[in-house]
């Protein structure tokens, strides 16, 4: 049953709505998921919808597994909020994407302000990764082992790990992660890979560094924090995903939202948003090793965007009253039309990789360049805002 009569969450008459995870699995994806926060339970209708495995088959904790939450002081580990999210997911028969271990942001000050040698940083990374992953061992389908290690120009983002270990920290992190939970899929995760080929190639460089060290890495997560009017074409999104599947990896959209700026949104921007959500989901369907899609929250009433990007918002599949938007209907229709077109996802033996991409699809190169150029100002704002928001 892929459609449900949804009451409560939607004002007015009963609405028959698609159920995204059920549709996604029928279309050959492993899951359609959402980020979750402990505060979600304060909105009963939102929380009820979030808890239905036919709507979402996967959770990502938005903050509860980050270093500042799990090891606030050296050697003292704390998992309260993360445990409740993980146990809820498992009782709902959902998968967990666990997030995140090595990241420049939301570090406790004992890490961010410490003076580290190569040996002392290696030891702290091993302790953090082995304790945190060990605590959740067997419960995380995937881990974002390293998050946002690149600047938008493809250079390495400065952080305590790079300062102490240079670019060896990538393989070091993945080595400890593989030892801590050999069954977990280990991902590199970043934003704006969709917009900037130089950044996407930076992620290729990181993957190759880890592979050259003989250390497992299983996937690249593209966060997919997009802006209406600047989302690349479905073909170019597919081209970017295939940069990683060509290396023998899985890919996933891990934090999808498509913000509208300027506000207020209108019929035109809302319709454009629907088309761009279709391009995002469609590009995942186009790539056999694209595992699934996670939205970073599903209602405009509970999105991180407005407090991070002034003048932007309305980014989600549901509006501020948590009523479905055209984007929800368009994504549902796309997934329904893809039913049975890919075999069900087989975690034990994922589909084979894609052909090695040669050049960006010329037919839309100009569009991509335009979108890239146009995105530049967004990205500058993104980086500044992200830095501000995560400072
Ligand atoms: O925990 C403190 C609380 O004690 C304090 O009272 C409160 C008010 O200042 O702040 C709380 O910390 C907030 C934290 O979320 C936990 O709620 C931070 O201010 C706030 O900046 C932080 O925002 C999170 C952001 O990451 C930080 O970079 C967002 O909720 C979270 O959705 C967002 O998620 C990231 C992904 O992890 C990585 N990709 C980008 C994505 C969006 O930035």
TrEMBL record:
<keyword id="KW-0119">Carbohydrate metabolism</keyword>
<keyword id="KW-0624">Polysaccharide degradation</keyword>
<comment type="pathway">
    <text>Glycan degradation; xylan degradation.</text>
</comment>
<feature type="signal peptide">
    <location>
        <begin position="1"/>
        <end position="18"/>
    </location>
</feature>
<keyword id="KW-0326">Glycosidase</keyword>
<keyword id="KW-0378">Hydrolase</keyword>
<dbReference type="Pfam" id="PF00331">
    <property type="entry name" value="Glyco_hydro_10"/>
</dbReference>
<keyword id="KW-0732">Signal</keyword>
<keyword id="KW-0964">Secreted</keyword>
<comment type="similarity">
    <text>Belongs to the glycosyl hydrolase 10 (cellulase F) family.</text>
</comment>
<protein>
    <recommendedName>
        <fullName>Beta-xylanase</fullName>
        <ecNumber>3.2.1.8</ecNumber>
    </recommendedName>
</protein>
<dbReference type="GO" id="GO:0045493">
    <property type="term" value="P:xylan catabolic process"/>
</dbReference>
<keyword id="KW-0858">Xylan degradation</keyword>
<dbReference type="InterPro" id="IPR044846">
    <property type="entry name" value="GH10"/>
</dbReference>
<feature type="domain" description="GH10">
    <location>
        <begin position="24"/>
        <end position="334"/>
    </location>
</feature>
<dbReference type="InterPro" id="IPR001000">
    <property type="entry name" value="GH10_dom"/>
</dbReference>
<feature type="region of interest" description="Disordered">
    <location>
        <begin position="339"/>
        <end position="360"/>
    </location>
</feature>
<dbReference type="GO" id="GO:0005576">
    <property type="term" value="C:extracellular region"/>
</dbReference>
<dbReference type="InterPro" id="IPR017853">
    <property type="entry name" value="GH"/>
</dbReference>
<dbReference type="GO" id="GO:0031176">
    <property type="term" value="F:endo-1,4-beta-xylanase activity"/>
</dbReference>
């Amino acid at each position: 049953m892929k459609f449900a009569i949804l009451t409560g969450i939607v004002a007015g008459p009963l609405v028959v709505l698609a159920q995204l995870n059920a549709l996604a699995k029928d279309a050959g994806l492993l899951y359609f998921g959402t980020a979750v926060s402990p505060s979600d339970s304060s909105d009963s209708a939102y929380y009820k919808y979030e808890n239905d495995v036919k709507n979402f088959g996967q959770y990502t904790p938005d903050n509860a597994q980050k270093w500042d939450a799990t090891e606030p002081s050296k050697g003292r580990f704390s998992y309260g909020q993360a445990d409740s999210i993980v146990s809820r997911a498992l009782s709902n028969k959902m998968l967990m994407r666990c997030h995140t271990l090595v990241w420049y942001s939301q570090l406790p000050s004992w890490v961010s302000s410490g003076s580290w040698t190569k040996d002392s940083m290696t030891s702290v990374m091993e302790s953090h990764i082995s304790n945190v992953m060990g605590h959740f061992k067997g419960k995380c389908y995937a881990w974002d082992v390293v998050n946002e290690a690149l600047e938008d120009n493809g250079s390495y983002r400065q952080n305590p790990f790079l300062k102490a270990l240079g670019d060896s920290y990538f393989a070091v992190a993945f080595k400890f992660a593989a030892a801590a939970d050999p069954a977990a899929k280990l991902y590199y995760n970043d934003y704006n890979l969709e917009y900037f080929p130089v950044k996407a190639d930076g992620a290729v460089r990181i993957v190759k560094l880890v592979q050259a060290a003989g250390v497992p890495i299983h996937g690249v997560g593209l966060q997919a924090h997009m802006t209406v009017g600047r989302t690349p074409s479905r073909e170019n999104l597919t081209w970017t995903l295939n940069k990683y599947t060509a290396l023998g990896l899985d890919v996933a959209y891990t934090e999808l939202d498509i913000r509208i700026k300027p506000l207020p949104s209108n019929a035109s921007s809302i319709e454009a948003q629907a088309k761009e959500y279709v391009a995002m989901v469609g590009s995942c369907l186009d790539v056999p090793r694209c595992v699934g899609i996670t939205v970073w929250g599903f209602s405009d009433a509970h999105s991180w965007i407005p407090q991070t990007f002034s003048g932007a918002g309305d980014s989600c599949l549901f509006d501020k009253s948590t009523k479905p938007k055209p984007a929800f209907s368009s994504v549902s229709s796309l997934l329904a039309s893809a039913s049975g077109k890919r075999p069900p996802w087989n975690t034990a033996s994922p589909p084979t990789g894609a052909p090695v991409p040669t050049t960006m699809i010329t037919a839309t190169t100009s569009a991509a360049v335009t979108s890239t150029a146009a995105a530049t100002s967004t990205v500058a704002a993104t980086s500044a805002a992200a830095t501000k928001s995560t400072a």
